[in-house]
Amino acid sequence: MRRIAFTAAAVFALFAPPLAAQEHEPLEWQEYAYPELGIAKEFPASPQRQTGKYQTEVVGENAVPSVVYFVDFGDLIFQMTVVDLRAPEHVLRAANILAECIFLAESAGLPLANLPLDVKDDTQFGVHGRVVSVDLNYNLGVRQTACLHKDGRLYKMEATMVHPEEEDGEAIARFVTSQRFELRKP
After folding, report:
1. Cβ–Cβ < 8 Å for 86, 105
2. Which of 10, 16, 65, 140 could covalently link to 169 via disulfide, CB atoms 3.0 to 4.6 Å apart?
3. Cβ 40 vs Cβ 33: under 8 Å
4. Cα separation, 186 vs 182, whole angstroms
5. Which burial class, exposed, middle or buried, applies to 8 when counting CB atoms under 10 A from its CB (0-12, 13-18, 19+)?
6. Is the distance from CB of 180 to CB of 31 less than 8 angstroms?
7. For the chain, which domains are there?
8. Tally of CA atoms within 13 A in the half-sphere of 163 that contains its CB
């Protein structure tokens, strides 16, 4: 029941107008620009960086390069994965790779919400994706995942709460929706 209340709060936070910053806000949000990856992303603390490989059924047998930025507070984990899919064989499968990202997010547990996510960029079309909220299998917590695709890259934002607390819902929603693809000064 508590997880359903969290999900309702997190979904509301996705569409609610921004609230004024509170004096006692525990997370220090800051935007980090990654021009080489085509994105600017807000994190609640300075993120750590890892490189690796991303492999799924749709990507195929040959894993593709990925970069992961993350902040781990123990009970709260914020992670952005950027997957390089600019090779011709992946460009043709972009829609399937995005759909697979959404499917894998839903497969991690009991899906609670699957909502559209639109992010403005420097084109008239914008970047479109989905935000998925799940109650993780084996009572491992709650996760929101945003999957977006732009210019041959898959962008996957994941925010996980190991011990869900209603007051963390806004931070989770903020993380999965606070990316910018316009890297010029606004």
Report:
1. no
2. 10
3. yes
4. 8
5. middle
6. yes
7. 2-16+45-180 (3.40.1000)
8. 3
Q: List the one residue out of 175, 115, 181, 174 whose CA is nearest residue 149.
A: 181
Beta bridge partners of 68: 50, 81
Encoded amino acid at 110, one letter: L
DSSP bridge pairs for 153: 84, 150
pLDDT in tens, the chain (186 residues): 444 444 444 444 444 433 333 222 478 999 999 999 999 999 999 999 999 999 999 998 889 999 999 999 999 999 999 999 998 888 888 889 999 999 999 999 999 999 999 998 888 888 999 999 999 998 889 999 999 999 999 999 999 999 887 778 889 999 999 999 987 754
For residue 35 the two structure tokens come to 């021009």
Element (H, E) at 14: helix 2-15
